[in-house]
Amino acid sequence: MQILLRDYPREAWPDHPDFAEAIQHWMSAHQMFRRLGQILHQSIEQALENNMDPEQFAGRLGQYGNLLVRNLHGHHGWEDHQFFPELVSADDRFARGLEMLENDHVELDALLHRLTTKANRYLQMLQLSPKDASAELAALSTETGAIGGFLDRHLSDEEDLVVPILLHHKLRG
């Protein structure tokens, strides 16, 4: 994965003539995912510390959790079915690295499923037994922490592999 990254280091990407708007848009989506994960985790931490009303937290959980899950599924589905095959056809040396990223997407699906299950449980408990709902927050915090760490690693790995390929082969320009 480091072959082209040495020739196209991250700090030089913005000044590269082939660092096109499409690449910037793709990376902006990654920044959005990181930020949504942070907002969600911070909201859970505030709820755990009783610094946020449970109903306000429920609204944030529904809004930001839905945005994160729905957009991540759509984004990595597009990558797996359209974007990554395009990259492999441009440079088959990277099939192994791209396969690793696709396997990460399988792991991400499992993380998102667990988050959705735990978030739905919290929201149901809030309706059925509000005083018991707070017991669900620690599990939610664990899941959002895991997703945040996973996204930091995965998205950086993905960018470090993909952007040099795009720049080297003048793709997406």
From TrEMBL:
<dbReference type="InterPro" id="IPR012312">
    <property type="entry name" value="Hemerythrin-like"/>
</dbReference>
<protein>
    <submittedName>
        <fullName>Hemerythrin HHE cation binding domain-containing protein</fullName>
    </submittedName>
</protein>
<feature type="domain" description="Hemerythrin-like">
    <location>
        <begin position="23"/>
        <end position="166"/>
    </location>
</feature>
<dbReference type="Pfam" id="PF01814">
    <property type="entry name" value="Hemerythrin"/>
</dbReference>
